[in-house]
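Hi support team,

I've been running sequence recovery on a batch of backbones for a student project. Most finish fine, but this one hangs at about 90% for roughly twenty minutes before it completes. I'm not sure whether the input is malformed or the queue is just slow. I've pasted the structure tokens below so you can try to reproduce it. Let me know if you need the job ID as well.

Thanks,
M.K.
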């Protein structure tokens, strides 16, 4: 036990020294981020998006975003295989009165919020990943309360596949036309307006639908009841 405490103390002491050296050497709030400074200066004129994060996620590191979507798809598939059993789809038992009323009240607001965050991702903080999760919650809440029946799993899978296909198709079209994967098409528009950023808002819509359908599919599978043993 004493050896463990000594090791922890040495680690914490080294961490404090490292953080102190960074605070002394680097000016607070003005780190030497050469690449980041270049993106901040060029991104609005290059991509036409007021939200610089959108330019990075869907433009400068678009291949990384495609990789993240692939990882999410693989993870969802793996969880589905683990949970995959013969299931029957019949209405979920209704929850309590408060849960049912709250689900009915929050459902349209969550849908509206999710769509707003996705559509305005190139203008304000948010985007496809955040909005997609909110859409999945909007779908899951009525299921949890038992006020809505489970939608066919095939429809969710089709929506997921179409969203992923749209994302890759837009990227390939950009590469064939401009030589860069996911380069903005359709013009940049006026910075700060809804119809700006070229195809980047379309990419966020595809991301939101894909993330939302994958999360909704997982939640739906968890709520399905197992077939009784023969």
């Amino acid at each position: 036990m004493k050896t463990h405490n000594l090791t922890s103390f040495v680690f914490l002491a080294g961490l404090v020294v490292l953080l102190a050296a960074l605070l002394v050497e680097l000016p607070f709030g003005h780190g030497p981020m050469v690449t980041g400074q270049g993106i901040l200066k060029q991104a609005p004129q290059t991509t036409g998006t007021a939200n610089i994060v959108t330019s990075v996620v869907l433009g400068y590191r678009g291949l990384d975003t495609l990789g993240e979507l692939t990882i999410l798809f693989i993870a969802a598939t793996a969880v589905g295989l683990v949970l995959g059993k013969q299931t029957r789809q019949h209405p979920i038992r209704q929850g309590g009165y408060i849960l049912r009323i709250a689900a009915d009240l929050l459902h349209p607001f969550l849908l509206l919020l999710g769509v707003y965050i996705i559509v305005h991702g190139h203008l304000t903080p948010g985007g496809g990943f955040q909005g997609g999760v909110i859409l999945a919650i909007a779908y899951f809440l009525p299921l949890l309360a038992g006020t809505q029946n489970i939608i066919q799993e095939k429809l969710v899978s089709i929506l997921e596949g179409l969203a992923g296909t749209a994302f890759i198709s837009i990227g390939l079209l950009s590469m064939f036309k401009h030589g860069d994967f996911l380069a903005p098409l359709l013009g940049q528009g006026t910075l700060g307006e809804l119809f700006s950023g070229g195809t980047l808002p379309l990419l966020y819509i595809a991301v939101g639908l894909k993330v939302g359908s994958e999360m909704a599919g997982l939640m739906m599978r968890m709520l399905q009841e197992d077939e009784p043993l023969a």
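--
Follow-up from support: It reproduced on our side and the slowdown came from queue contention, not your input. Confidence is low (pLDDT under 50) at residues 226-230. No action needed from you.
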